[in-house]
Structure formats: structure tokens, C-alpha cells
Amino acid sequence: MKTEREEARPGRAPLDAARRGAASEAFADGGVTACDGLASGTALGAARQRTPPAPARVEPDVYTGEYYLTHCHGHEDFLSSRGRKVGPRFIKALSLAGELRGRRVLDVGCGRGELVLQSALRGADAWGVDYASAAIEIAQRAVAAAGDDLPRERLHLAQTDVQALAFADASFDVVFMMDIVEHLHARELAAALREARRVLRPGGALIVHTSPNRVVRDWVYPYWVRHVNKAALAFCEWLGYRDALFNRLMLPTGRDFPEDDFERAMHVNEQTAPALRRQLTAAGLRIRSQEFWEPPMRGEYFPTPRLNGELRILDFVRFLRPLSLYPPLNRYFCHHIWMTAERA
Fold first, then answer.
1. Total Cβ atoms within 10 A of residue 218
2. Is the dihedral of CA 189, 195, 200, 201 positive or negative?
3. How far apart are CA 147 and CA 259, in angstroms?
4. Cβ distance 211 to 205 under 8 Å?
5. Which one in 202, 214, 228, 315 has a CA-CA gap of 20 to 30 Å to 286?
6. pLDDT single digits (tens) 11-65
7. Which domains does the chain have, with CATH numbers?
8. Beta-bridge mates of residue 155
9. Where are the beta strands (DSSP E) in the chain?
10. What is the pLDDT of residues 225-283, one digit of tens each?
């Protein structure tokens, strides 16, 4: 799961252990509120694989409090506001959902619960489900710490398996699947999409976001971006120039798309747009809209005009920004894929 800014620099520094621990411990103080909870569903059996066998799923204990509070997209806004303030990705999801007052909303793989809280504040009867106990506990603490204006009677959290949702057919007007697709193996994703269709009301909207776009990962990065990085570093080395941008940490040159430890453990099924469309269609869903997207920058990335100017020039060469924000280049250079679907 990506932060708003990391597309500007595919590589990033390792997390500082002291900072991670302090953030996690600061938020962990406090009890768990009595929100709705369901028992976890059963896991898929292990699939037959070549040796060594691949796990049938990413186990829920991989998703720790440290992950949600120091790495997972939007953690800075969450820690500062307990879900009251959200970034461009969540704002985009809410805009795609439209008017929520009086509607029933489900966030599948809700994480810390920001979309559940935001939907409830907008007048929806909002449910959030996740199979990771750490996610539900963090979301419950956020609800417990929220102000009196939070409509708690319209906000529900449950720990359950997304492949076996404990809801009646046609229960929800809007179903969010934000940054969950890439975390599910193929058979898990097929089951989760069938469940999303089952609980979606006719005319309702399934809103899906996934990142990274595998076209960027498998083609644009290895065959273009890393070579631009190599050339930029070689030129700067020849000049004897080095700064906070032109260095090997910020400009990776390895053959493989840069990932951190969390992404290597969790991203088991990254998508292209055609692959995602096929899977939605196979689950009995009709595609309403598709968008290749980059989140708008919230302020400048670097503290000095010179560094930000260098970054803009470099990103024009690496990612053809801003031309690649528009068709037809966006399908090749944008990291994020959005799809909205309905029951076929």
C-alpha cells in the first residue's frame, strides 16, 4: 500500500525503528471499545505448489499494529486526527461513492477504519470488516476516542474473512475494496469478489482501488525508469554532484521494482487493468468506469525550490509527467487503478 508521495521516488529509506515503536505505543494506550465483532472465518486450505510451497493466504498476524501505524497508506493523517482527516486516495473513493446519506456502506478490508468513520459522518450506516485483529483493534480505539458528534449507532466494525461475509444478500448500496486486491491470492480474490457482488444491491456500486499497476512494475520501471535513474546518477557522478535526490537510495537502478519488507510479504497478486476487469466480470460484475490515476501532491516533496525543480525535471523524463496523467499514456505510467462496478 502506497503513500501519496512515494510515486515521485520508487525507492525509500528503511523505517526508523524508534519512530515506529513510539508511534505504535502512543496509539496503543487505551482500551478496546465494545463495537460489533464477528469471529474470523476459516482460511483457504494450502494449495498444491512446487517446492517450496507458497502459502494459501497472507496470514492475518502479518498485519501488525506497527504496519498500520507506521507504514500503511494514510498513517500520518490517521495518527494526527484519528481518521477525521484523510488524504487524496480516501477522498477520491468517497467522491466516487457519491451521496451517502441514508445508504448502507461496507468497507472490505477496512484497516484502521477511516472510510467507515468518514461514511458514518456523511450519514451512512457504515460497516467495516477486516480479518486482521490489529486493524479492528486500532479502528475500535479510534472510535472510542472520537468526539460526541460521531454517530456511533451507524458505525460497525467486525473481524471476519472477506471470503465469507456475514451479511444477507443485497445488503449494501456501496462496497469499498481499497488496497485489498493485491493482498489476496487469485482464488481468495475470486471468492471475495463473488461475496462483494452477493451483498451489493442492484444498482449499487463496488469501488475498487489497487496499486501498483503491473504495467509500471513489469515494464515501465525495468525497461525505462531504472535506466533514466542510471543515466542521471552517472551524469551527476561525472560532475561530482550529489544531493538529497541524486543518490542511489532515491534513484534505484536494480532490475526488480523497489519494494520494502511489508510489500514483499503482502503484495501477492498485483494487477493490470485488463486482468482486474476480467476478474470483476468473472464474478458477475459489470464495469461502470475505469481510471488510471496519480494522487495530487500535497505541497512540495522537498524543503527547497532547487530540489523540487530537479524532481519535476526528472519525473518529466522518467514518467512523462504531467503528460502521462492523461490518456493514452496514463495506462502505462500511472501507478493506481480505480474501477467502479455493479451487479451484472
1. 14
2. positive
3. 38
4. no
5. 214
6. 443 334 444 444 444 454 443 333 443 333 333 233 334 445 556 789 999 999 9
7. 16-39+55-211+269-300+332-343 (3.40.50.150)
8. 126
9. 104-108, 125-130, 155-159, 172-178, 200-210, 285-293, 336-343
10. 999 999 999 999 999 999 999 999 999 999 999 988 999 999 999 999 999 999 999 99
Is the previous residue joined to 303 through a cis bond, with omega within 30 degrees of 0?
Answer: no
Transcribe 287-316 into DSSP letters: EEEEEEE-PPPSS-SSSSHHHHHHHHHHHH
How many angstroms separate the CA atoms of 295 and 266, rounded? Answer: 22
Q: Which three cell numbers stand for residue 262?
A: 511489508
Contact 320, 177 (CB under 8 A): no
- Closest alpha carbon to 261 in 66, 8, 95: 66
pLDDT band (50, 70, 90) for residue 10: very low
Q: Which amino acid is at 21?
A: G
Name beta bridge partners: 105.
126, 174
- Of the candidates 245, 218, 247, the residue with the CA atom closest to the CA atom of residue 305: 245
